[in-house]
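pasting for ref
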Amino acid sequence: MKRIFLLFLISFSCAALFAQTPVKTKPAAKPVQKTTVAKPVSKPVQKTTATKQVAKTVTKVAPKDKSIRLKLTTDSGVIIFKLYDSTPLHRDNFVKLVTAHFYDSLLFHRVIPEFMVQGGDPSSKNATPSAMLGSGGGDMERIPAEFVPAYFHKKGALAAARDNNPEKKSSAVQFYIVEGKKYSNEELNMIEQQQGAKFSAEQRLAYTTVGGTPFLDKNYTVFGETLSGFGVINKIANAPRDGMNRPLGDIKMKIEIIK
């Protein structure tokens, strides 16, 4: 029964995302870091007391993360997240929209506990309580998928919604933030059998400790992640909602780039 329930949950959740405009090209190549091999010193160098002292004071400093950071303000609180540089098409498109204040006053129009919160439908601005939302932006040019193995649907992942197009291209405007839930290794094994793909050790660790939505991997482009405000995501996901998963009370958003 547990296996049947899990497969039903996966099918329902994916079908629900397909129903919205919530991207599959060739997977992005893994970035290769070039290393420089130092030439051997031809003569031994005697260290003086001064050089030894300097050596003790030198520490390795990690390079500063220059990822673009954004602040998403909602009626339920503030979420801070960053955009990945390895998904440039989605990053640049999102920055363009945020800079133009496109998302200001739009709604989180679809929220599902232990799954995700979705927004970005342009028709949600000033929408009446009875309005059907989720199809806005469908007439805009889609964004090619940017699947990067290192980016997956862990809790707090920022991903692009899409319709059921065969190339898995993303909606130009709609996005979702993962709330998800924790999975056991047995459940992850079942999802692997269902999808014919293996989870990495990093994915398994995340999905069994902090949670996420593993069955969405390689189906929707993940292009950012939450840095703070996980409690806000949970609050939005658990807001009272109608039969179409729209919050009964409007949850508006405003997104700005953090300088």
